[in-house]
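Task card 7
Instruction: Convert sequence to structure tokens.
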Amino acid sequence: MKLHEPVTGGPCWAELGTTDLEAAKRFYTKLFGWHPETDRRQQAGGYTIARIDDAAVAALTPLYQPGQPVAWNVSFAVRDADATVRAVTAAGGAALQGPTDVFDAGRFAVAADPTGAVFQLWQGRSFPGAGLFNAPGSLGWVELLTREPDRAADFYETVFGWSVTASRRYPQWGIGGADFGGMVTMDDKFPHEVPAHWLPYFAVADVNAAAVDTTDGGGSVLMEPTSVPDQPRIAVLRDPQGAMFGVYRAGAER
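Output:
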């Protein structure tokens, strides 16, 4: 993506909720070279920040809510979490959790768009979000999969002021002229039970190798490594606990 640091309205963080935190640490450390650091404070509930060198790149957490699915979640940076939640509900979305303060790091909320895709809001204070984008092992793209693309486009334009390129094949989200994500229309190829969702993509040096490492680590490949016209090589993977995520070749614009 064309963003290289957290900016208001753009993706700033990716966070995995998982049933087995220790297994997730081992899997992603091998796959991406992450160095996980678990917050030992009891109030943190096992929250673990993954780093590449000194840069925070993502988080791994236990499941905190009953019925919470194993999944990767995407956070978007906002100036005022409370005001954004009000904008979400006014535009037809739903507030699912918060806003609530997270120590002195920032203010956090969970919401859903009108098509059912869940996302997070982050009002950064001492912690603005990821310290690295687009490099191997870090977040480099986010993708909305939805069955109602027009409704989704109207919602995100209203709430965040995003631009959306007019493309039947693959509309792209942008903010301030910088594209950071795309939108896929879910058709009959997607099982009915799969809800609308946001999918983070992480940059890797070698997409084929990442797919092999995923299966060797007990995960699975949902979309084989593929070269997309005018786009980098990509794959969609699933970790051993069931969370889906994408990878793409670092150095190629996503």
